[in-house]
Amino acid sequence: xxxxxxxxxxxxxxxxxxxxxxxxxxxxxxxxxxxxxxxxxxxxxxxxxxxxxxxxxxxxxxxxxxxxxxxxxxxxxxxxxxxxxxxxxxxxxxxxxxxxxxxxxxxxxxxxxxxxxxxxxxxxxxxxxxxxxxxxxxxxxxxxxxxxxxxxxxxxxxxxxxxxxxxxxxxxxxxxxxxxxxxxxxxxxxxxxx
Length: 194
Description:
CATH topology: Lipocalin
Mean pLDDT: 88
CATH class: Mainly Beta
Largest sheet: 10 strands, antiparallel, barrel
Low-confidence stretches: none
Order of helices and strands: HEEHEEEEEEEEH
Strand content: over 45%
Strand order of the largest sheet: 1-2-3-4-5-6-7-8-9-10
Number of domains: 1
C-alpha cells in the first residue's frame, strides 16, 4: 500500500488524528540538560465552527471566516495513566494562503517554545514534508514533519536563540494501538493471508 502524503494542513491534521507514542532525542548546545524521553501525543481535529477557532482568530486579529479548521494537541508522560487535561491543549488554527491549501498561517493559542499565542508560517514541499517556521519574542523555531507510513511519522526541530542554535530535537512517532485495535489488525491480516 503506497503512502499518500497529506499536502494541506487539514489533511495533515486528519491523518494525525489519534494518539501517538513519541520517542524524542533532544540535543542542547549550551547545557547538559537532557529532555529526551517518551510521551504520548493526543491529536484531535477541530472543526472551523468550533468556538476555540473563533476565540483564537479574534485574539490574533484574524477573520475567523478564513479558518479552514484546526487541531488540538495534548501531551502526556508515557507512563501516566490519567487522561491528559484538555484545558492544557494547544489549539492550532489553519489559515490557508489560497484554495490549494499548500501554505498558510498557523495560529496557536500557545507556542511550543514560549507559552504565548503565536502565528507561524507553514508550507508543504513537493515531497510531502511539512515545514513550520515560528518567530517568538526571543527565539526562532523550525519544525519539519513527514509521514513514513500512515502509522509512523518523523518530526525534527531546531530552536535558535539570539546567540545561535539552542537545541535540536528528533522525534519518531508511531500511532498508539489499543488492544482492541491490535486484535482487529491481526484479524485483518489473517483474513488477507487466507
